[in-house]
Design goal:
This protein has 129 residues and is mainly beta. 3% of the residues lie in helices and 52% in strands. Strands 2, 4, 5, 6, 9, 10 and 11 form a seven-stranded mixed beta sheet that branches. Strand 7 and strand 8 form a beta hairpin.
């Protein structure tokens, strides 16, 4: 599976951005897709994930600090996962990466970047104060 992420940019604190991650290749009906971010000098960290098995539904999980501000969703017809980011803060500044695994990951594995076997290129999000 190939992943193409886009949608990053520069925004003022309190603003919004929507990231997109388009999947191509051997996409199936059972999936976990996640967003991770990496700030300068820091490790790559989990932000949000969505998982599904079959054509409908979608179970989501979020980093505590983004709950209520970020929303992950998917569009089956477009094979695309989105990360809507509202009320952005300077501490959200990072390179954001999307990742995928053709498996319905259980909760205990969802936040571990080593569980994902496909990665998109990063997209820079910069939030100014």
């Amino acid at each position: 599976v190939q992943l193409q992420a886009c949608g990053g940019g520069l925004v003022q604190a309190g603003g919004s951005l929507r990231l997109s991650c388009a999947a191509s290749g051997h996409t199936g009906s059972t999936y976990t897709m996640g967003w991770f971010r990496q700030a300068p000098g820091k490790e790559r960290r989990f932000v949000a994930a969505i998982r599904w098995s079959g054509g409908s539904g979608g179970s989501t999980s979020y980093l505590d600090s983004v709950k209520g501000r970020f929303t992950i969703s998917r569009d089956n017809a477009k094979n695309t996962v989105y990360l809507q980011m509202n009320l952005l803060q300077p501490e959200d500044t990072a390179v954001y990466f999307c990742a995928a695994r053709q498996e319905y990951l259980i909760t205990s594995r969802l936040r571990n970047l080593d569980e994902y076997d496909s990665w998109g290129q990063g997209t820079q999000v910069t939030v100014s104060s």
